[in-house]
């Protein structure tokens, strides 16, 4: 429905149509760029400003199940200064800017929810410096993690954050990405030392330093990480690197019950055994992988555990993990140290998403992303699996259980409204279960436009503090609007 | 000099006197609480509001060398709700509030620079919960780290951040404290999971969650950590705990030159050998400790290294460290695994500050706090030592060199204006040296009122972004004013 907006919402409305949801929340304001704005951008970028429909469509597509809106134009930028110039032009006209990386977001981050200009950063893909002595490197936002690790190979160093997708570093910063190795090496918050970013007024700032730690002023680096492009466009980052371990040992343990698998994980973590990865797959995931990859792995909940260190360390540590797993009735423990064998053990986990989706051909998928305290992990996963069965839904559970973070991957036919609602209801119950025990609605995917309603459930009135910061730093609400906050928040 | 303040400064001036420095910066505005404010606080707190001169004096004393101003009143609070009530009363009157913990700040954080009410949080010293299964605990801000670790002992867990002083957890959060174990276990930013804080309007917020990671909205936890009470008063914190290691092994290696000592450290870090502590002491520190503790340790630069892990891990790792140290010409390597022997090796490092001060009886001390990239660590320390000699100043260098962070401890007679200026000039050159190579003016002590002039040197225009956040969240500038920012910033 169309309606008159409140005083606080008016603050954000520049022109064009808008509508209110049934709760009276502002859900859409179009703020398409004017001809004048497009001309100014064209004169800045030439052919690197595109309004071709195929390009717009591509920039209105991500890997989420959300309805995502295409932008009105796409700016293919090549430098921080160019990003600043684009933002200045858009700021003058109140036109939204939406940063675009590899397009692998799962929560609608790249949607031009209110129209505007996508800033495609993938042309900024230079590795600016590698400093082995400082165990750090500096990259532009469009560098992908795979590209970076190929480049690093000769140095004996690696960039460890691995969200699965070959995401861009800029995108990974925006959502505070993490992944299978976070249990050992941390997430983007601990692996980014410094940033360059373009703020809403077009100002270029540099945050952080090349030192390992600092107490100098507010931590703008960690404020920008996870801010999903709503405070600034990240253009460069100084990243922390780790040495490639001398030895790696991987094991896969199967269990009779998911409870035993998760309890094993919890015990390993509580005993402080160093693990580099700790991944859970439930029966459904294993079965889907079997079908997808024509394997005959026994269909049981499985735990993949990996150790990194010196050869003697990984031997000693994996020995203890095997002992713990056996205490919880593990079956068929398989261990591997060679690259080929380790790759084989990991192959199932890596294909889990596509394997699950392939069980319902033609489906799109929803991936939940809760993280919960260790002490509740077993209960929450067991309850979630029971809920899945009770709801008569098909889904696989995989997870970075060493961090208390797991995903239920649910394929659904987007045309089947009833099924889609069932999937959403299931996800809703899971999020509430996680928040109730002190967890979070998103461990690594971000809020985007998909989880805005949960932000207040999780953070209560501290969302108002977040929004005060947003309004102060982006008074025209041009930085990726419609993400994290409802427009009329507060 | 007294003068008319600028438009932006006026924003902060409520009443009373103020003065401008020669650079035209606002350095002092008194905003003493009115009788009405004091009455309202008295009616809230009864005897727990004090205006006794001895109490005011105690709350105008820290461990820094700065001129620190006493507050007009001290509120001894007992709960988060009481802090909120105090802040509301003060906010209504535009009266500054200054959080006060153990009083161990080194940068004048507790100074009532513009008058106002100190909020003494040491009565909030309850450990609210310990959850061994989640490896976390929840404490009030007035709990000290020693108190917490005594309480934790029976659980086999420990809180690892150790800044030396028996600081309060609230104070450690305010300055983003770290210390000897940060190289292994992180600093306050990585060890605080969630916070309760009272904001400038008296609103109580809860940030973060009990999950190990989250991508839900802006990271207010890490924004508050290191914000030195200028955004909110932290009242409670959920802390991450680690298992007490099965085995610990300590070694002290002496070198012919400080360059060899620091190069050993850099090599160990670059090779990724896990170290739990990595501390440097220069010749002056060793000599001062000898005199202070009546020891006869050869006067040479020394490196203290500690390993935590299983017995076989610490053996293997310390063996590699010894090899590296030998490559750099180490002499007299001493190793210890028993508690008594390890304590003996550490005793010198623990007394280094007092030992250094005792070399100039009656002195106060300045401790520098730069952190630099590893790749520059050796050069910066060698240059700093040369500068010390050239300046004919006495000082000891100790440092958490595994994080690139070191302190020069300089005793001086505060009556000796000339010497004090020489000490300040030396510190100024050191900070500039650190910032020039991409480091920071403060690795763990914070900006306080002592390093405000360096914040812009280090962070340039991003200080404006910090200050925009400050103004948005604390429009009356009542939260610990006169710290981090000059009043008339921007």
Question: What structural keywords apply?
Answer:
homodimer, 490 residues, alpha+beta, 7-stranded antiparallel beta sheet, 17 helices, 21% strand, FAD binding (chains A, B), D-lactate dehydrogenase (cytochrome) activity (chains A, B), FAD-linked_Oxase-like_C (chains A, B), FAD-bd_PCMH_sub2 (chains A, B), EC 1.1.2.4 (chains A, B)
Summarize the structure.
2 copies of one chain form a homodimer. Chain A is an alpha+beta fold and 490 residues long.
Descriptive notes:
The structure is a homodimer of 490-residue chains. With 490 residues, chain A is an alpha+beta fold. In chain A, 37% of the residues lie in helices and 21% in strands. A seven-stranded antiparallel β-sheet of chain A has the order 17-14-16-15-19-20-18, sandwiched between helices. In chain A, strands 7-8-12-10-11 form a five-stranded antiparallel β-sheet. Chain A has a four-stranded mixed β-sheet with strand order 3-4-6-5. In chain A, a hairpin with a 4-residue loop joins strand 7 and strand 8. In chain A, helix 2 runs antiparallel to helix 4 and helix 11 packs across helix 13. The longest helix of chain A is centred in the C-terminal third of the chain and has 20 residues. Chain A is globular. The N terminus of chain A is likely disordered. At the A-B interface, strand 11, helix 9, strand 13, helix 10 and helix 12 of A face strand 11, helix 9, strand 13, helix 10 and helix 12 of B.
């Amino acid at each position: 429905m169309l309606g008159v907006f409140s005083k606080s919402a008016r603050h954000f409305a520049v022109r064009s149509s808008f509508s209110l949801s049934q709760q009276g929340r502002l859900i859409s304001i179009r703020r398409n760029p004017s001809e004048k704005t497009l001309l100014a951008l064209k004169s800045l970028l030439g052919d690197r400003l595109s309004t071709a429909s195929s390009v717009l469509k591509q920039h209105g597509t991500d890997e989420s199940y959300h309805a995502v809106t295409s932008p009105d134009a796409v700016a293919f930028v090549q430098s921080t200064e160019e990003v600043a110039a684009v933002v200045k032009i858009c700021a003058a006209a109140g036109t939204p800017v939406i940063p675009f990386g590899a397009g692998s977001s799962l929560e609608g981050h790249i949607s031009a929810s209110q129209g505007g200009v996508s800033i495609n950063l993938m042309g900024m893909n230079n590795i600016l410096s590698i400093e082995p002595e400082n165990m750090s490197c500096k990259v532009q936002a469009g560098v992908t993690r795979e590209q970076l690790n190929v480049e690093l190979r000769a140095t004996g160093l690696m960039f460890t954050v691995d969200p699965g997708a070959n995401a861009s570093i800029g995108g990974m910063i925006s959502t505070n990405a993490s992944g299978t190795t976070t249990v050992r090496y941390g997430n983007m918050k601990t692996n980014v030392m410094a940033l360059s970013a373009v703020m809403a007024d077009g100002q270029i700032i540099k945050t952080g330093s090349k030192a390992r730690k600092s107490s100098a002023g507010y931590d703008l680096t960690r404020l920008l990480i996870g801010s999903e492009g709503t405070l600034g466009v990240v253009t460069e980052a100084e990243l922390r690197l780790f040495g490639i371990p001398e030895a790696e040992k991987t094991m896969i343990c199967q269990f009779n019950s998911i409870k035993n698998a998760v309890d094993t994980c919890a015990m390993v973590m509580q005993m402080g055994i160093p693990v580099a990865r700790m991944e859970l797959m439930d029966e459904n995931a294993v079965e889907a992988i079997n079908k997808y990859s024509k394997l005959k792995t026994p269909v049981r909940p499985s735990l993949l555990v990996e150790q990194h260190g010196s050869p003697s360390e990984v031997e000693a540590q994996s020995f203890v993990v095997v002992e713990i797993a056996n205490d919880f009735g593990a079956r068929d423990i398989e261990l591997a140290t060679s690259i080929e064998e380790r790759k084989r053990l990991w192959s199932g986990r890596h294909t889990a998403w596509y394997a699950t989706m392939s069980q319902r051909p033609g489906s799109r998928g929803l991936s939940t992303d809760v993280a919960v305290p260790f002490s509740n992990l077993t209960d929450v996963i067991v309850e979630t699996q029971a809920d899945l069965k009770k709801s008569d839904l098909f889904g696989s559970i995989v997870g970075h259980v060493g961090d208390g973070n797991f995903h239920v991957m649910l394929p659904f036919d987007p045309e089947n409204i009833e099924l889609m609602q069932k999937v959403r209801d299931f996800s809703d119950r899971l999020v509430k279960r996680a928040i109730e025990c002190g967890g979070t609605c998103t461990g690594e995917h971000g809020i985007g436009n998909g989880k805005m309603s949960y932000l207040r459930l999780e953070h209560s009135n501290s969302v108002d503090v977040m929004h005060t910061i947003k309004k102060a730093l982006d008074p025209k609400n041009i930085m990726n609007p419609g993400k994290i906050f409802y427009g009329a928040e507060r």
